[in-house]
Amino acid sequence: MPHEAKPLVELFTDGACSGNPGPGGWGYVLRHPVSGVEREGSGGEAATTNNRMELAAVIEGLRALRVPSRVELHSDSKYVLQGLEEWLDQWKARGWRTAGKKPVKNSELWRELDVLRARHELRFHWVRGHAGHPENERCDRLAVEASRQFGAPV
């Protein structure tokens, strides 16, 4: 599909974990800037890590898109953004090994992200976490609330 034909969406994501590992949650907000339509989602796991929840937020947000899209991805996770921008292609070329020849952590989630990024055109935007960015704060609330369903303290 030509670049111009793909709809533009903004995806805001965040993950949270109480302990690392511990109960965790993820949250996303999808916004279609032309129509103003927004959708959000959240979920979590009983025993997980912060990085896994950051990855899950992006995966679930991208999965929610019904058609290939141009996605402006906003995250406070340098791990996720650097992984997508810098590390992923190198990991694949090395058979899902790091430069130090160790297995890539969370490789099943990175593999899923690799499939999703092939479907969409992604542009990356880092936002400072817990600094008053409205959508990041909203995603954080969704993630924390979801983590409580899996045992995180109130």
List the helices and strands and how they pair.
Blueprint: E1 8-17, E2 22-31, E3 38-48, H1 50-63, E4 70-75, H2 78-93, H3 107-119, E5 121-126, H4 134-148
Parallel strand pairs: 1-4, 4-5
Antiparallel strand pairs: 1-2, 2-3
Could you walk me through the main structural features you see in this protein, from its secondary elements to its overall organization?
With 154 residues, this protein is of the alpha/beta class. It has one domain (3-83, 121-148): Nucleotidyltransferase, domain 5. 38% of the residues lie in helices and 28% in strands. It has four helices and five strands, in the order βββαβααβα. The protein has a five-stranded mixed sheet with strand order 3-2-1-4-5, sandwiched between helices. A hairpin with a 6-residue loop joins β2 (22-31) and β3 (38-48). α1 (50-63) packs parallel to α3 (107-119). The radius of gyration is 15 Å and the shape is globular. The chain starts with 7 loop residues before the first strand and ends in a 6-residue tail after the last helix.
